[in-house]
Amino acid sequence: MSFNSLGLSRDLLYALEKQFYTQPYPIQEQAIPEILKGNDILGIAQTGSGKTASFVVPILQLLQSKPIPKNRHINTLVLVPTRELAIQVEKVFKAFSSLMEQKIKSLAVYGGVSINPQMIQLQGVEILVATPGRLLELVANNSVFLTDVSVLVLDEADKMLNLGFKEEMGNILKLLPKKRQNLLFSATLGSDITSFTDVLLNNPVKIVIEQESQNLDLITQLAYSVEENRKGPLLRYLINTHEMKQVLVFTSSVFRSDAVVNKLIDNGYTATAMHSKKSQGGREDALRKFKNGEVQILVATDLMSRGIDIPFLPFVINYELPRSPKDYIHRIGRTGRAENAGTAISLVNEEEKHHFGVIQKKMKKQVALIPSDEIDLKGY
Ligand code: AMP
User: Which end of the chain has fewer surrounding CB within 10 Å, N or C?
Assistant: First the structure.
């Protein structure tokens, strides 16, 4: 299957080629023709499945044939749960749009930064990627109008509901015209999501992408049984012996992220944390430095890991196990993305052993626990 058979314009086929997208991923193959037909979509897909381009590309094509809307009346609204995802999704719109003949203006807006520049930049925007709270603020001060929205995208809708955005999402829906196209993407299809999609979507085309099992095959999984007080030294030992140049380390709390980072820095490594207590600027800075290799180790919590798009991440380490098996799969999936292989290592203490068993059962894969008592950690 090639992009040629999906009903895309020459302009977009050119942009895809320039971005080195040679073949559509399954979600793109299924979603693009349906979105171009004007259908609603319910896409069950993870980050890494290619879901972003599956809506970005057809939306840009649809907008090409539409008249430019009145100033500050956006045409497409993409709602996302976090600032990081807002920035990332908008980047994809920009990357494609910049390669097209007719440029389409897009913007990402999110809280935690000053609202004024966003108010000014909203001039002439057609595609707005927003977190719910900041969008409502911008609406309240007449910086943007939602009455001409023809396409609504909810990305990572499950996360939005989990984070308690339901009420804000409800308030936004009331401001949108009744007649519009709805595209909803979620990593899971729980009862929460189902009740929401039932009212939101109009006879949707349902697309389910089983990304996890495909991804898992690409990932070498290792696990060490280790006493809690040896986790830090073992982490540093593993970073050295595997010669990890770029590694994402997961912890389950903000406090622990900072503690791990401080210990790493004390031991001469370059490391930085990515969590909800960091300022917006701090997070962007951390991600940029990690991506460009200035910082070797990024220590993140689960929430912040959502949507961090790093195409070729070779190593992921679970300093602590996540509570849910889904999050485990999501974490380690960071290394097996876009068809690249990677290694995921878990540090499992006595108390976590039972939970690690549950995780293995859920992902239908066994990972032998390697004892670490014999490893000489002196000097680490
Ligand atoms: P996403 O799930 O949207 O976060 O996409 C995951 C990664 O796959 C991103 O780095 C994309 O640039 C990349 N990607 C998406 N679709 C394709 C494609 N058809 N060919 C090559 N890379 C792709």
Answer: N
Instruction: Return the sign of the alpha-carbon dihedral for residues 74, 78, 81, 84.
Output: negative
Residue 139: HSE in the Cβ half-sphere, 13 Å Cα cutoff = 20
Contact indicator for 223, 292 with CB cutoff of 8 Å: no
Assigned CATH class of 213-371: alpha beta
Contacts for 194 with CB less than 8 Å, ≥ 6 apart: none
Check if 3-210 and 213-371 are the same fold. yes
230-264 residue pLDDT tens: 999 999 999 999 999 999 999 999 999 999 999 99
Which residue's CA is the nearest one to ligand 1's atom 10?
311
318-377 pLDDT per residue, tens? 999 998 887 898 788 778 665 667 899 999 999 999 999 999 998 888 999 999 999 999
* pLDDT per residue as tens digits for the range 55-81: 999 999 999 988 888 899 999 999 999
Q: Is the CB of 47 under 6 A from ligand 1?
A: yes
Q: From ligand 1's centre to the CA of 218, what distance in Å?
A: 16
Give percent helix, percent strand, percent coil of the chain, each to the nearest 5: 45, 15, 40
| pTM for the full predicted model | 0.65
Q: Which amino acid is at 121?
A: Q
Domain boundaries, the chain: 3-210, 213-371
Q: How far is the CA of 343 from the centre of ligand 1 (A)?
A: 20
Give the least confident one: 101-115, 119-133, 297-311. 297-311
CATH class in words for 3-210: alpha beta
Checking phi first, is residue 2 left (phi over 0); if not, alpha (psi -120 to 50) or beta?
beta
- Residue type at position 178: K
Q: What are phi and psi of 42, to 5 degrees?
A: -115, 105
Distance separating alpha carbons of residues 32 and 58, to the nearest angstrom: 6
The answer to whether the beta carbons of residues 217 and 337 sit under 8 Å apart is no
